[in-house]
Amino acid sequence: MEKTVACDLSGRRALVTGAARGLGAAIAWRLADAGAAVWVADVRREQGEKVCARLRAEGREAEFLELDVTDSGAVADAFRSLDERGRPPGILVNDAAVDVSAPLEHLTAEEVTRVVSTNLLGAAYTCLEAYRRMVAAGSGHIVNILSTAANRTWTEAGPYAASKHGLRAFTHTLFKEAQRDCLGVGITGVIAGGMNTPFITERFPDTDLDKLQSPDIVADTVLYALSVPAGSCVPELVVVPRNEPSWP
């Protein structure tokens, strides 16, 4: 798909979680195409390395960062390592997410913990590390990928909706604190509707693909948030298929 947003990220470094496939990979490509040096962060090393190899083959700058966002110590170590290399990210995109679609009566405590730990706590851990560094540097931008589940919910979506509702509230709070702490730091939440990615197609193989949007559209939305000139910021964006059943 052709790029539809003009944004020059030359000289900037970006870290994208969940970037080994799907939306995360699409975002990594968009940022790299715009000139950013991209950290492809994921727990799936083989897939992440392949994304990096394809990016480098196209002349883009990309490195794989094996990262389990549910491990706060590992997140802190990763950011310290990037500091030591003189390559702290000025852009953070939190896309890592999991889901377990099941009625509440059939969910286990371990499943609930995994969803909330990945989608909410994982994003919070990376934000904690990135935000204080961005404030110290006087600039930066954090984009948290939300979901229509951050506004409403449906059956068999309890942990997922709870995690995305929580992340939306966390993102709004971070926006207000950035207004207080450093006007050079942007905070954006992107509410994305259904996408043609493995996140949906692997769990719901009978999904009508015509009712899903391309992840490239959402990646362009992220790029748009990063393209807004200094002095303005887009705190939240919504991008859904025209026939999205879960919006509004």
* Strand arrangement across the biggest beta sheet: 3-2-1-4-5-6-7
Which regions have little confidence, pLDDT < 50, spanning 5+ residues? none
Distance between the termini: 27 Å
> How many strands, which pairing sense, and closed or not: the largest β-sheet?
7 strands, parallel
Summarize the structure.
By secondary structure, this protein is α/β, with parallel strands linked by helices. The protein has seven helices and seven strands.
Outline the structure in words.
The chain has 248 residues and is α/β, with parallel strands linked by helices. The protein has helices spanning 22-33, 45-57, 72-84, 109-137, 158-181, 198-201, 215-227, and strands at 13-17, 37-42, 62-66, 91-94, 140-145, 185-192, 236-239. Strand 1 (13-17), helix 1 (22-33) and strand 2 (37-42) form a beta-alpha-beta unit. Helix 1 packs across helix 7 (215-227), helix 3 runs parallel beside helix 4 (109-137) and helix 4 runs parallel beside helix 5 (158-181). The longest helix is centred in the middle third of the chain and has 29 residues, at 109-137. The radius of gyration is 17 Å and the shape is globular. The mean pLDDT is 96.
